[in-house]
Amino acid sequence: MLIYLPFASAAIKQTKGDFEDKFRQLDEVLPTPNVYRNAAGEPGHEYWQQQVDYKIDVKLLEGKRRIEASETITYHNNSPDTLKYLWIQLDQNKFRDDSMSALTTTFGGIGNRGPATQSASGSKPAKLSMGALRRQQFVEDNELGYTISRVENKSGTDLHHVVVGTLMRVDLATPLKPGKKVTFDIDFAFNIVEEDAVSARAGYEHFPDDEREGGNDIFLLAQWFPRLAAYTDYEAWTNKEFIGRGEFTLEFGNYEVDITVPADHVVSATGVLQNPRDVLTKTQRDRLKKAETAERTVFVVTPEEAIENEKEGTTKLKTWRFKADNVRDFAWASSRKFAWDARGYQQGGDTQPLVMAMSFYPKEGGELWQKYSTESIIHTMDVYSRFSFDYPYPVAQSVNGPVGGMEYPMITFNGPRTELRDDGSRTYSLAEKRFLIGVVIHEVGHIYFPMTVNSDERQWTWMDEGLNSFLDGVAGREWDPNIPWGVEPRDITGYMKSQTQVPIMTQSDSVLRLGPNAYTKPAVALNILRETILGRELFDFAFKEYAQRWMFKRPTPSDFFRTMEEASGVDLDWFWRGWFYTTDHVDISIDSVYKLRLNTEDPDIDFARERAAEQDKPKSLTVTRNEEEGRRLWVDRFEDISDFYDENDRYTVTNKERNKYKKFLEKLEPWEREAFERAVREDKNYYVLNFSNLGGLVMPIILELTYEDGTKEEMRIPAEIWRRTPKAVSKLIVTEKNRELVSVTVDPHWETADVDVENNHYPRRIIPSRVEAYKSKPRNTYEYRDLMNDVKTELDTDDEEGDDN
Predict the structure, then answer these.
(1) CA nearest 446: which of 454, 435, 434, 437?
(2) Percentages of the chain per state (helix, strand, coil), in multiples of 5
(3) Has residue 771 got a pLDDT over 90?
(4) The domain spanning residue 714 has which CATH number?
(5) Which of 427, 481, 571, 720 has a CA positioned 20 to 30 A from the CA of residue 684?
(6) Residue 746 lies in a domain
(7) What is the C-alpha separation between 379 and 474, in angstroms, rounded?
(8) 514 SS3 class
(9) Where are the extended beta strands (E) located within 554-655?
(10) Are residues 316 and 249 in contact, defined by beta-carbon separation less than 8 angstroms?
(11) A cellular component term (GO) from this record (predicted)?
């Protein structure tokens, strides 16, 4: 029997002309599949990518804090196109005072690391941080950017080249045809930036020349050599200016790099050391060999040896030779301050059975680094390999220095360290411990994404930062779930309802708030996709399929979206569209709940129910007070004026209604009568739940139903319930007669990133909050200074502590 619900239909009424299909297919947005990238999200049968090999001879001039180097580049044209010129990235040019980065930096405003602000009224002074002043002065006092002294082909002929900001076009002597290669040389040099001054991804850090710190520098070198820009099937040359935020997309190749540094330096680099006998002592080589099978970390250079090494300098030099195959970049670090520990990670398999996990850090790293750096590396590989592929390289390294966190093939830079106390001990806070573990997991995770799965970070930051943040959250919660890893759905609700949100698909340099946009929101989206929408089995299979399809290749967002759908067998276009292409947020409100009871059509039953329902309504206040005053009704005082209707009401049943009921039963088909009579007999509860989609982002509706007997039940309604009416829907829930529903909660586990959990309760709950007493503070303005008292203050001398006032 059809139940007519006029009150529910009003909730899902569609206004003429405003229908929006949240479930329309995403193919209208994604690029058309082709021979390079097919419709399943796989590399096509004619997929190609370029290869670039480098031989580099670099010298660190420690006193000048300068790099001088020569490189030989061999470019393999695997594309179907003939190339007349090559584009090369010159990232160090970003630090020039005439760079696009410098000229387009705004004063204050969103997206700047600041602080630099100015009040709208101009009544208060603008603010310029000491860090901003330091950066300006460093750039003014130092000549930054590349000096390119030679660009020649292998026959010694100059190649015409033009520098365009952070790029350089090199014109080839003859066009480079498909399947051919070209070799040429570049001599270059640059002054290394002080990382603490300019806030870069690499640079040097100088330690004070005093008894506590002992002087010396740590050098972190990345984006340090002219590198070929990527040439792709989807964009051709990826020659977008490097402004500072958008990272890189590069070509895989083989590297041979000779690094000449002071003889007392310890060097960490991408690749495998080729000449250990030239740069390491026999003791150090023996320790390194022992570390391969050790159960705990082994020091190759002990902290005590590192401290002794700091005390003396040398004019002698050593050259460390490294080789790295099939990597997309090369970075290194050098310092006489480094202690060095290592442990072999026996991952088995055919790809790379043994990986050397190693950490390099100064005495300032202390016990914090001794305990957690190398262990975090190994934990990362153990977890990430389950979700993707075996770690593909022979080494994985964590280096302490001025960079808070940055990744390159086989090497990462990580910042947290201990604090030296007055008693000579070194301690660290809980925040610093959590930071170190978290940043090592995150940066080593980047060796998988994007150092192996080679996404375009300049265009789609989320493809490496978001995917990696999702996985580092998985790894982190397997390390210690009590650490706030920042990838839970509740961690993104503030951003999603803010006015500064932009779509995840926004190019990195244009994103207003990079952290929540490129890291947290895509990580949360994938977390929800795994735990709430697909389930772990389907998600994990599809995600691993994506990772293995695109190892050492260059995926785009469409490849990821298509692979996840094709491998899971679930249409997710609504999910990608809502989470990645819009700024909609999740806000599902439960507006009302109606309890219905099926009419039996038997007038003796139904009329009695209606009479009881009428009697249950609150009595008129006037009538109640009349009764309290003892006022008798007129019909009670004069019985002779009573008639039939004083004994019978509108709920009195007559034979006419009974005959109608009999005819109703007789007209039913046998199966209809059987179904109807069973429903009447069971007398179940029919509840209609009305929901509004206030945020615009369609999501599954997850319900916790609480019954009168105290039991609870969970119901998960797929997002497709919104497919016809994306703004409001109603859902019928049927329960047994003895299962009386008393309350409903939407998203009880906070797993959908719903921004307003208070409209998730029916009936509404009292909202918990706090209040704090405070004491008014004096106004901090010139006219409110107590000058009569302040002029009595004596000037502090250099050898005494000043008055706190």
Answers:
(1) 454
(2) 30, 25, 45
(3) no
(4) 2.60.40
(5) 720
(6) yes
(7) 11
(8) helix
(9) 588-597
(10) no
(11) cytoplasm
